[in-house]
Amino acid sequence: MKHLLVVYHTQFGNTGQLAEAALAGARGVPGVDALLRRAADAGVADVLAADALLIAASENFGGVAGMIKDSTVCALTRTSDLDVQKAGEAIRPAARGRIHVFIAASPIHMEMKLRMRPEEVLEAAVRAVRLVPFVTALPGR
């Protein structure tokens, strides 16, 4: 079972209705359990228990609502250059963002799934981490 956490902030109720609709849609997907939390009520345990996170916030005078805008946006990516690039594009608009890069490092994963030797796995991880600053930089910075 996959767990989706829907976090929302609303002043007038409209974004709450949108979050509830997303929740209802997610609950209709087999194998998905979804939980709805107001931004002020969502805790670390909620986020850590989630496999996916959907954040809904209204736009207030051209900016994202305060309860959400000060959050750090994280992306989780594999070590392929394209995946790291897409993660960078996804978090680039965030005021604060970070990318978590992962690669399977157990002997059976390296041998059977990645078909890589330990030194190749290490090289792939280092290459991906070194790529992060280039894919997250805004043009002109």
For the residues shown, what is the average pLDDT?
84
Instruction: Give the CATH topology of the largest domain.
Output: Rossmann fold
Query: What is the helical fraction, as a range of percent?
Result: 40-55%
Count all strands and give the number: 7
Walkthrough of the structure:
By secondary structure, this protein is α/β, with parallel strands linked by helices. The chain folds into two domains: 2-69, 3-Layer(aba) Sandwich (Rossmann fold), CATH 3.40.50.360; 72-136, no CATH class. It contains six helices and seven strands. It has a three-stranded parallel beta sheet. Strand 4 and strand 5 form a beta hairpin. Helix 4 runs parallel beside helix 6 (118-136). The radius of gyration is 18 Å and the shape is globular. The mean pLDDT is 84.
How do the helices and strands line up, and which of them pair or pack?
Blueprint: E1 2-9, H1 14-27, E2 32-38, H2 44-49, E3 52-57, E4 59-60, E5 63-64, H3 66-69, E6 72-77, H4 81-91, E7 96-101, H5 107-114, H6 118-136
Parallel strand pairs: 1-2, 1-3, 6-7
Antiparallel strand pairs: 4-5
